[in-house]
Input
Amino acid sequence: MKKTKAQATFEYAIILAIVVTALTAMQVYFKRGIQAGIK
Output
């Protein structure tokens, strides 16, 4: 199976977006967890 460069770049961009979204969600979750632990 041969992929075009554009298709590979598009798939990479989707994966990158998912990773960034997951990290952002985790960061918010951890901040809330830490703040709840301090209070």
User: Anything to note?
Assistant: The chain has a mean pLDDT of 92. The first helix runs from residue 5 to 38.
